[in-house]
Amino acid sequence: MPAVSCAMLEAKMYIGVDIGGTKTLIALLNQEGExxxxxxxxxxxxxxxxxxxxVETLRQDFMSDEVKGIGIAxxxxxxxxxxxxxxxxxxxxxxxxxTKTVKAAFDLPVLVxxxxxxxxxxxxxxxxxxxxxxxxxTISTGIGTGVIIDNRIDPxxxxxxxxxxxxxxxxxxxxxxxxxxxxVLKQKYGKYARELEDEAAWKEVAFNIALGLSNISALMVxxxxxxxxxxxxxxxxxxxxxxxxxxxxxxxMFELPRIIQARHPQEAVVYGCxxxxxxxxxx
Length: 283
What we know:
Helices cover 36% and strands 28% of the residues. It contains nine helices and 15 strands. Helix 3 packs across helix 9 and helix 6 (199-220) packs across helix 8 (235-249).
């Protein structure tokens, strides 16, 4: 890939790394939060191999003297004291040194948080009109949730994992992400969301998504629920079915929140990395 151009180096730069269950996205963002360069590649199964790929890609294609810091989004639990990834939903990694690995290679500030938290932070700050309470739900390989209160990641829910709420299906109790994720959609219908046109299938998908959203609505009572990820990208295909299902599942004790599509369903996480870095490094 070409080296970072001189035009890109006129402003301070920030790097966001979105570790996905199947793909990893690296983005270089400028002072205004615009993505000026990106690269996506398969996430290696073993952390050692992933870390080698990450460091080499950063060094070859993204690093310069203008980079102020690196934000890393982990699809699972994070140790906020050490910056380690504790456990990952659809990856077999445990207690991996995300911060230490990157800092050792580049000696730059490295911040790590959960991917849904970071995506929620970016999307909540772009809401018009703004909302005091937002729940971001990313539906991709798995399902993750981030709770944003007054445009900040709520520390009380920073480690919440909405994708692991359990529901009965065909006589079995299953995690929500084993019912409504993109992985399940592909397994069940043999197609990716971008390919699925069957109205009955989308109606079923919408109902399974509504199961989790109705519980989130009852427990959190957010003003807005934002749906992102690879399934969120296709919300227009099933939004009416989702609304109908939510109305059927709604209880009298709470009002349904506004349910909207993420402005950047696939890039929200790296925008969240930029928001976090700006908050911490630039005040």
